[in-house]
Amino acid sequence: xxxxxxxxxxxxxxxxxxxxxxxxxxxxxxxxxxxxxxxxxxxxxxxxxxxxxxxxxxxxxxxxxxxxxxxxxxxxxxxxxxxxxxxxxxxxxxxxxxxxxxxxxxxxxxxxxxxxxxxxxxxxxxxxxxxxxxxxxxxxxxxxxxxxx
Length: 149
Known about the structure:
By secondary structure, the chain is mainly α. 87% of the residues lie in helices and 0% in strands. It has six helices and no strands. It has helices at residues 2-14, 17-40, 43-60, 63-87, 89-111, 117-143. It is extended. The two termini are 38 Å apart.
């Protein structure tokens, strides 16, 4: 058992963690960019972007109108996420885990410079999102129908 622990310890020490985390962040960025690219090819998404660009100067001068618009956007995004979870719970769970990991990494990068309760709340939120992601993956696996032999 001690040999196994020593092997695992040696392997973990040999990993270039900074490079690995940068690769992980780049992977998430590529996935988000690919999603945005796929969405931007749709005609409806282009129309939405053009409309938002046309009304943005007005919104910036009217904070209540901007808050209302962003609240509506949050509700629509939440509805879309709920629909995604219903249709593909495993991918939804994986995306939650990835989002939580990136969020916690970014919070921990800045926590060493200044410690604030808001950063601890953000870290706690990231842990919660990761836990929910793993729960969604487990729930989706329980719902799977086994293939008869």
